[in-house]
Specification:
Elements: H1 9-64, H2 68-79, E1 84-91, E2 96-100, E3 109-116, E4 124-132, H3 134-184, H4 206-251, H5 261-277, E5 282-289, H6 292-299, H7 301-317, E6 325-330, E7 333-339, H8 343-360, E8 362-364, E9 370-372, E10 375-381, H9 388-404, E11 410-411
Parallel strand pairs: 10-11
Antiparallel strand pairs: 1-2, 1-4, 3-4, 5-7, 5-10, 6-7, 8-9
């Protein structure tokens, strides 16, 4: 995704501040120029008036005494002032004395002063007219305006440089540090604290608010992530427990808690392969509860379930922990898998179970009667050429032989190892 060109906020503020500074400076400078103009004009007129006041007494005496040379000398003295371009003196007797540049008479400013009599100031002996040279006034105004322009330029440059330096130091650099930190922050670095290089004497300002807000956000994210991690761990643990429970349910019989036929089909090939590979013995005990269908038919399925559960518990008592295992193969049929066990030992295990069931497995019925249970067993030992099917088939044949031969017995009987006739 493309982004518009970066416009630093410091540069934006500098431009806006500079515009207002220039506007303010121009306004103030214009006011100052106008005030300087009025002051210079007033001072200029006062200076001319001072010249007149200083020379009027001498002119009064020279006219009263009718001394033309003295009057001309006074005119020459007055013309030494650069502000006065032309002087004309008219006596009350009609005599006229002039001096200066006639070309400035038409363009200059005319100022007329009465010449008082030496003895009586209330009477006049003539008048003097000054033609003021406006060029001098304009030069003074131009000089003042140039000075103001220079002051404005210097002030503007100073303000601009100061504002640029301050904004870049106190705003642009911290904001860029913040932007670079956020840009380079990785998911595994959220705990890294944001530290800005700033001047301590600046005090606590909005940038510090942003930094504190970002740190608060980091802390919140850390807490949220920690909570999520804990929640994920908890959910994972619950899921694993549920999966383990489901796995256990999928491989066990719900009534007896024995393994089911599905697990037998999955696990038994590996047991045979292990026994063959390491030349170990492996025996199978095929168990069947005698007359179980009659129990269900005469006493109900609840009684049948109780018989199955009690029988499975009897089998479990003979299992070696983490070695032997028992499967409910179907209905009232169970298979005991006995690794590291020869046929003789397996027959002995089966016989112990048979006697235990015969002597102790009974169900007391609601009507007070006692229902006793027996079981038949067929045992087979793994041969080198055996498969799962052949091993189970041979044990099943011995079981069938035991049930056909009167039930409540283990087959093959001691020392009779050969398979029964088909």
């Amino acid at each position: 995704m493309s982004h518009p060109p970066l416009q630093p906020i410091a540069s934006l503020l500098i431009r806006r501040v500079f515009k207002w500074v220039i506007l303010c400076v121009v306004c103030i400078s214009s006011l100052q120029a106008w005030l300087n103009y009025r002051a210079i004009e007033t001072n200029f007129n006062m200076a001319v008036a001072d010249v007149a006041r200083a020379n009027l007494p001498l002119l009064s005496v020279a006219i009263w005494d009718i001394e033309p040379q003295t009057i001309q000398k006074q005119i020459a003295q007055i013309l030494k002032n650069p502000s006065i371009a032309y002087v004309a003196i008219t006596a009350s007797t009609g005599q006229q004395f002039t001096g200066g540049d006639n070309n400035r008479v038409a363009s200059g400013q005319h100022m007329v002063f009465e010449i008082p009599a030496p003895a009586d100031a209330s009477t006049s002996v003539g008048k003097v007219e000054f033609v003021v040279d406006q060029t001098v006034l304009r030069k003074e105004l131009l000089r003042s305006f140039i000075i103001i322009i220079i002051e404005v330029v210097i002030l503007s440059v100073f303000i601009f440089v100061a504002v640029v330096a301050i904004l870049r130091r106190d705003l642009e650099k911290p904001m860029r540090q913040l932007a670079d930190f956020v840009k380079n922050l990785q998911a595994n670095q959220l705990s890294t604290k944001l530290e800005l290089k700033r001047i301590p004497e600046n005090g606590y300002n909005e940038i510090d608010l942003v930094v504190d807000g970002f740190r608060t956000m980091q802390d919140s994210l850390q807490k949220h992530i920690a909570n999520q991690d804990a929640l994920v761990a908890e959910r994972t643990s619950q899921l694993e427990a549920a999966m383990k429970s489901l796995k256990q349910l999928s491989i066990t019989d719900g009534l007896t808690s024995c393994y089911n036929r599905l697990l037998f089909n999955e696990r038994m090939p590996a047991e045979i392969q292990r026994a063959v590979r390491y030349q170990r013995q492996l025996s199978l005990v095929f168990c069947d509860i005698d007359f179980f269908k009659r129990i269900n038919d005469e006493h109900g399925h609840a009684a049948g379930d109780q018989v199955l559960l009690t029988f499975a518990q009897s089998l479990a008592k003979e299992l070696r922990v983490d070695v032997d295992w028992v499967v409910r193969y179907g209905g009232e049929e169970f298979i005991m898998v006995l690794p590291e066990t020869k046929l003789i030992a397996a027959l002995e295990v089966a016989e112990r179970i048979r006697r235990q069931v015969e002597r102790h497995l009974f169900i007391r019925m609601p009507d007070g009667k006692v229902l006793r249970v027996t079981a038949s067993f067929g045992v087979s030992e793994l041969l080198a050429t055996d498969t799962v099917e052949s091993l189970v088939h041979r044990a099943d044949k011995w079981l069938y032989f035991a049930k056909s031969n009167g039930r409540n017995q283990v087959q093959p009987i001691d020392h009779l190892i050969s398979a029964p006739a088909e």
